[in-house]
Design brief:
Strand content: 15-25%
Structural class: alpha+beta
Radius of gyration: 18 Å
Number of domains: 2
CATH class of the largest domain: Mainly Beta
CATH topology of the largest domain: SH3 type barrels
Length: about 120
């Protein structure tokens, strides 16, 4: 479930004082723009909207929580600079509307003793 994967990221972000805007989509299609990521307490998400309203919803009602990427500077990225390849890949993903929250699962290693 997407919500479970985001919970671990939100736990890490709870210790940081920086506010990151987020977006919460409910199962009925309602979308809330949030000032900062919600926190989970007793099975309910508690959050503040951009309007300043404090709301809480049951965890089962939430379909997806997306963190909004920080604003990027308007500088051109150089595709020939190997240090900027990660930023170029992120920009291409963001232009398609996809954002990476968690790292992919590592490739499993072959086990010893299972030869032909």
């Amino acid at each position: 479930m997407r919500v479970a994967a985001v919970l671990s990221l939100l736990a890490v972000l709870a210790d940081t004082p920086v506010t990151i805007p987020a977006q919460m989509r409910l199962k009925d299609g309602t979308v809330y723009e949030l000032k900062q990521p919600p926190f989970l307490k007793n099975g309910r998400f508690i959050f503040t909207t951009h309007d300043g309203k404090v709301l809480s919803l049951a965890e089962i009602e939430v379909d997806e929580i997306m963190l909004q990427p920080p604003a990027t500077p308007d500088r051109a990225l150089n595709a020939h600079d190997s240090h900027q390849l990660g930023a170029i890949a992120r920009e291409r993903r963001r232009s398609k509307g996809s954002y990476t929250l968690l790292a992919p699962a590592p490739t499993p290693r072959p086990r010893k003793g299972k030869g032909p």
